[in-house]
């Protein structure tokens, strides 16, 4: 069962622009609550990346809104996993978080190999933060009026042995969690005259090519 958090409805929450600082802060406060982190640390009470000793599971975040439940089950077939819809999930625009536990705790390097593998499996749609070993993830939650749209399902096959994960054959660009959105209806001239900050150029070039 999800934890109904926040005061806003799903529609009100989705209407907030994450690229506007004040609205982004409201979004964060709305879904703030319990979280988990599948790693062990050298020192208690901290979560610095340099203190990570081992990672116990891979957590995937799919926020593109284009991956169906059927596709998720196909990509994760044969594994033990937990999948639940995230805070901004809608039936027509699905957003997911999946947890794949490792058969044994693994190193940072092994975890990054698993990230590259799943990034390739999902065509570059994973949030780039999934590679991070000290990233926190919210437990199942949704706006108070969206409990009926919440989804949860599991796979009960094999724990993932990181030693069996093949090296990725292609380099896939990860989805940026902070990629800026272009205003609807912007002309090609306006787009070509845009001044990009560091980290925006590749995404902007792809938009221009499209």
Q: Can you describe this structure?
A:
This protein has 210 residues and is of the alpha+beta class. It contains 6 helices and 9 strands. The strands form 3 sheets. A 5-stranded antiparallel β-sheet has the order 3-4-6-5-9, covered by helices on one side. Strands 1-8 form a two-stranded parallel sheet. The longest helix is centred in the middle third of the chain and has 14 residues, at 108-121. The radius of gyration is 18 Å and the shape is globular. The termini are far apart. 21% of the residues are buried.
Give the gist of this structure.
This protein is α+β, with helices and mostly antiparallel strands and 210 residues long. It has helices at residues 10-15, 21-31, 69-75, 108-121, 188-192, 201-209; strands spanning 3-5, 35-36, 39-41, 52-62, 80-85, 96-106, 137-138, 141-143, 152-156. The protein has six helices and nine strands.
């Amino acid at each position: 069962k999800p934890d109904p958090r926040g005061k806003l409805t799903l529609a009100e929450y989705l209407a907030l622009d994450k690229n506007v600082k004040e609205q982004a802060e409201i979004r964060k406060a709305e879904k703030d609550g319990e979280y988990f982190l599948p790693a062990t640390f050298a020192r208690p009470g901290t979560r610095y990346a340099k203190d990570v000793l081992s990672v116990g599971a891979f957590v995937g975040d799919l926020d593109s809104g284009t991956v169906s439940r059927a596709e998720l089950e196909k990509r994760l077939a044969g594994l033990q996993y937990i999948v639940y819809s995230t805070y901004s999930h809608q039936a027509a625009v699905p957003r997911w978080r999946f947890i794949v536990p490792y058969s044994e705790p693994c190193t940072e390097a092994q975890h990054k190999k698993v990230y590259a593998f799943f990034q390739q499996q999902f065509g570059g749609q994973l949030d780039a933060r999934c590679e991070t070993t000290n990233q926190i993830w919210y437990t199942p939650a949704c706006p108070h009026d969206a409990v009926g749209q919440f989804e949860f399902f599991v796979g009960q096959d094999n724990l993932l042995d990181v030693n069996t994960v093949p090296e990725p054959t292609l380099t896939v660009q990860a989805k940026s969690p902070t990629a800026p959105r272009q205003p609807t209806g912007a002309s090609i001239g306006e787009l070509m005259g845009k001044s990009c900050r560091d980290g925006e150029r590749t995404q902007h070039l792809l938009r221009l090519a499209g």
